[in-house]
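protien #1 (seq + structre)
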Amino acid sequence: MMVKAVLDTAFVRAQFAPLADGWVFVENAGGTYVPRQVVDRVQEYMSQTQVQPNWGFASSERATERIRHGKQLMAEFINAEPDEIVFGPSTTMNVYLLAQAIRPWLKQGDEIIVTEQDHEANVGAWRRLAEFGVVIKEWQVDRATGALRYEMLDELLSDKTRLVAFTHCSNVCSIVHDAAALVRKIHDAGALAFIDGTAYAPHFSVDVKALDVDFYVCSLYKFCGPHQSILYGKRDLLRKAANQNHHFITDDNISYKLLPGGPNHEFAAGAVGVADYYDALHDHHFKTRENNFHARLTKVYGLIAAHEERLAARLTAYLNTVPGIQIIGRVPSSDGRLAPVIGFRVAGRSSAEIVRELNKRQIAIGHGDFWAARVIKAMGMTAEEGVIRIGFAHYNDDADADRLIAALKEVL
């Protein structure tokens, strides 16, 4: 098979049944459709092995293996080891449980830095530790652009800083941060680094080892998987974390001590379908097949990023011609990349009214603060109106972009 230099969107779209409904779906930043491979894996688990795993009878053994396989592949997805990740129902819950698990490490007066740009999932749980005497410092954004003020991190870091939590990519400003450089700065200050990669992982390959990050979290349902999240932590740190489950769960049982009740079994098994899907993309586009799933994934993400960047460029080029439009963020950091997520508002127009008109034209889109309320407020907007957000996924094609721009021309 010859290498295809560009993403074959016809092949991609054939994997997603919902794309045949006649709508242009561009609320992908909130969650993507799932391909048939994921549906098949969940259905297979539920129809054949919907039993408690870890027993000796045949169906339980198959269930155990399918769950184990899903965890292994999702660890490989971010270049981690299976015992370094925890499945959870959401990023919000994973961050909350981790914050409570490391709370015993902190004493009154210790400092945690959070950003004003983040989704609340990576802000609220850390802020709650103020109840226990932890000092929360806020890393603020530029009021005009929504970009993090990089010089401010140096001012905030101190010998009392214990952890800095920041987003790999903003879910409304689309700014990708040079995470590796920030982690180095944080480590130099003697603190731990926690990254929320939920808005990053759908568009770019994640390598937690290359980042040298202490903790990393992302949501599978943002990159074509079931509605669950994975939390990564360096092994020694996760072993030290306090048990959040039943009293008899041992400290070295990382998967269970940081997930009360255990994982969603069918979705853990369904995660195998995520790898099935990306491998199908790899084998369709590339002649040779590496043995390492993360290496195959990285090649696929190269095609995905180039395709999504082109669609985002088309849309922003049009929006820049419309009087009264303010595009939110999209100020490249030193990383130089931007996610294909475009948030904007129109002077003198209601975001809600514009979205209603677009919905009438079968454009699936939303508006609001998208749970990044602090950056929306910092830029002088209200949560109720917020911004209109267009989030491309790799299964969007030129026809989607044509219909979207045509609809915008009618409405704006």
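ok now protien #2
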Amino acid sequence: MTDEIKSVIVMGAGGNVGAILIPALLEAGFTVSALIRPSTNATFPAGVVIHRAEYSDFAALVTAFRGQDAVISAVGTFSVLLQQTAVDAAVAAKVKRFIPSEYGGDTSRPENVSFESFPAEKRKVVAHLQSKEAEGLTWSAICTGAFFNWLLELENAAMGWDLKAQKVTIFDSGNQPFDVSTLSQVTRSIVSTLQHKEETKNTYVYVRSFTVTQNKLLATLERLSGKKFEVARESTEMIAARGLEHLKQGDFENGYPEIVTAVGYGPWGFLDFKERAEKWNEVLGLPKEENLDSMIEEVLKRKNII
């Protein structure tokens, strides 16, 4: 089919998402290019064409996007408004599909977490994409839930888990359900979205590997590791307030993770996709549910805990 998506460029390819996405796209048979800022020193597999440009440079972005079937954005959560120039450039370059940087929670209803700006900013990017539909650009906003591997493996990171120290902070009751995806499921969902061009046209796509709670994760970790974790408790309200204060002070290193933690574990259902994920996992041919025990065992082995 001449209308297939074959050539793709990953914007923000030097970041964490780009690093796992580009090999998956190559393995799936796509022709892959990488768009990075001039100051980025990232390296890429053989065969990946590298474009360097500031994301505010419309002319340079048009040049990078020309001949591409799809732009996949992997810019950071707190830099998403940079994508608006990229959307305009994609229209000018006659790109078929734009996948904005979602990959986390449900930003289609930002009023649910109105205390923080990034869900509204992500929604603003999608609204900008919607305004370009008449000009021939289509879009898919992929919501994957929390990245399961990074949730557990980054010591002292957002979300409260420190496996090596066997410590965890449980927020609120610990019983709020939230959806997570393994890194493999994240990349599979992006690849499959490109391969299901019509089904995923101009819509939000919700996928997951499984639904968990903090308490369920803790119980599973203790059972599989044979170790008792030290548990601290805090409210999402408190960590949200602390995160906002840190951001006001310019302390982004602490403020951003604290905000992400509050949004993810809070009572707003930001990471709870329910039947929407069931539908899209089936449409995209993704595993309905991965095995939680197996995934946790893999993490514990990589951390040399079992």
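Residues 252-265 form the longest helix (14 residues).
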